[in-house]
């Protein structure tokens, strides 16, 4: 927001949107000069930021998702004192967008909101997350581990691959939900005699204000929210740090699962080259990887990846995914400008 | 229904009810003479049988559960051409009854339906399942493995213990749901490069009329019914029989989990005596244990139990759980008559 960039808004702005299952964020960024991203100003100039609710259409339906997206973009522009006519490019990174048909659906709608010359990108929210670490370049692998988990890889040539992200029924054991569900299961098993005693019992019962492991079952099925279960990850981490073997086993298993997801993507896309030693970015996003405790899940996942791919370059993004989306749109404009310049 | 038992109905009848998550069965049985159960007539005389919907109050609510139970008992009596006045004892084995407060709730209600002298038992449906194998005696362990799984043990002295039965989130890996979910997970892992190829992919895609493993995710979350997932157990079994390693690993894991559940109950109740060599019945119930294919899960579970407790005596019940409930009520009447006779 420094004065040196005020001029840029007259050159046009870019909207970057990160649409998730809980909230949707839109940032309005002035069009930066088309120089190398290593010369980006720090901090990046952001003209406005707006927040709205869920825009995953699988969760709230198409109409509600569109309304939320339209509203959050209008609010960001309004906060910046601008209107739709100055927008040069938009990137929507939305969870739930997995197939070309999903992209088509959103593109057909958003085309009517902006003038025809505006460059529009509709992508999965993993694109925004990756770009938040690579400053807009769509190359490398992003590992997202919050309530859910997914590894998503992209190559410059347009190829992409994903691993995990199939939800709790289909074995996302490295997710926050997976870690916490294994913790709850360990308590039940210790209680009914199938498993060894664990510190998790007292720790979790205290947190949940329950008096007996029997009550864990009722608590678990009283509400189907995945995030509510995943909120117990800190209990598993603190028991592991206190030396509990079961909690350590659960975290080590999660590390293995998350590392395996990244490695599967890297292998399929040959991101590390044919010899496996090439360099590529691995962007790490989400509460499970950002815990920054003594038991550092993110660090252990990186170590696991480095053992197989020594050229992996871990990145913990300094900007939020909505800015990643804006930088991706900026990067695409820049590539186009360069290509036109060469013609 | 033989003429030799027609007389018995004038002596009174017993109602046995098996109330589950999908249906509720009530049988009306004449009061058999109080001799040893080894002298039971074969087949047992059943005057009438009625079927109604779900009576698990966690699923349908208290009022609906009571209405279903009242209706199914009235229908059984009506089919037998009898009225409530000839009932001597009732045993309701209902899923969802886990705590004394659940029992109280049903007892307070059913007291108003039958005259005060009628003996009434309200138990978990595991009691009906165990009694269907022990011909009414509440001693031993019952292992139920259908869509869900649970091991429930009872001693003559009234002590009881259970293991597993905590549902899919809390690690019931030996259940039909658990087996099938692991099968679906293996397909996703093979597809995204985290796991080895498996025959399950083609087998399950064909069964579900899907064209790609990507579609497994959408199929899985399109409907939250556990039974719909569990219906894929036969696919896992047939792939295991065809030599698929992943499918074999899943079934071996299920066998270990189910065996461990029984062993945990036996140990806590000391059903095999202090030296672990004593004899006790293990009643095996549910689709997962009754498959009777080349790969026989039930047989493998029994072998696993016998390795630890050589005195375990496996029983596959010849009568349905509702008859087990009736026999349990009969057994209680008989014990009471004997006790009165000794006074």
Automatic annotation (TrEMBL), chains A, B:
It is an enzyme of class 2 (transferase). One of its GO terms (molecular function) is N-acetylglucosamine kinase activity. Its EC number is 2.7.1.59. Residues 15-329 form the ATPase BadF/BadG/BcrA/BcrD type domain. SUPFAM superfamilies: Actin-like ATPase domain. Pfam families: BcrAD_BadFG. Belongs to the eukaryotic-type N-acetylglucosamine kinase family. This is N-acetyl-D-glucosamine kinase. It comes from Olea europaea subsp. europaea. The lineage of its organism: Eukaryota, Viridiplantae, Streptophyta, Embryophyta, Tracheophyta.
């Amino acid at each position: 927001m420094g004065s040196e960039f005020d001029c840029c808004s007259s050159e046009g702005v870019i909207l970057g949107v990160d649409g998730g299952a809980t909230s949707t964020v839109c940032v309005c960024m002035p069009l930066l000069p088309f120089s190398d991203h290593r010369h980006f100003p720090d901090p990046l100039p952001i003209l406005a930021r707006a927040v709205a609710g869920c825009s995953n259409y699988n969760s709230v339906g198409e109409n509600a998702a569109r309304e939320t997206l339209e509203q959050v973009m209008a609010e960001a522009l309004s906060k910046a004192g601008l209107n739709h006519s100055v927008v040069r490019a938009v990137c929507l990174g939305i969870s739930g967008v997995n197939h070309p048909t999903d992209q088509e659906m959103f593109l057909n709608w958003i085309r009517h909101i902006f003038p025809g010359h505006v460059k529009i990108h509709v992508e999965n929210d993993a694109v925004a997350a990756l770009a938040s670490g690579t400053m807009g370049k769509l190359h490398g692998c992003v590992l997202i581990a919050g309530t859910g988990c997914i590894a998503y890889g992209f190559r410059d040539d347009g190829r992409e691959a994903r691993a995990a992200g199939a939800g709790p029924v289909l074995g996302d054991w490295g997710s926050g939900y997976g870690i916490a569900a294994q913790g709850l299961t360990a308590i039940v098993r210790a209680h009914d005699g199938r498993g060894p005693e664990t510190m998790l019992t007292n720790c979790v019962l205290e947190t949940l204000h329950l008096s007996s492991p029997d009550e864990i079952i009722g608590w678990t099925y009283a509400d189907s929210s995945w995030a509510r279960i995943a909120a117990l990850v800190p209990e598993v981490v603190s028991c592991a740090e206190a030396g509990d073997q079961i909690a350590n086993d659960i975290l080590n298993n999660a590390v293995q699962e998350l590392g395996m997801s990244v490695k599967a993507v890297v292998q399929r896309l040959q991101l590390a080259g044919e010899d496996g030693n090439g360099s590529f970015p691995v962007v790490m996003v989400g509460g499970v990887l950002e815990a920054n405790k003594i038991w550092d899940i993110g660090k252990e996942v990186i170590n696991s990846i480095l053992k197989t791919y020594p050229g992996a370059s871990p990145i913990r993004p300094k900007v939020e995914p909505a800015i990643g989306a804006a930088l991706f749109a900026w990067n695409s404009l820049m590539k186009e400008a360069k290509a036109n310049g060469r013609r």
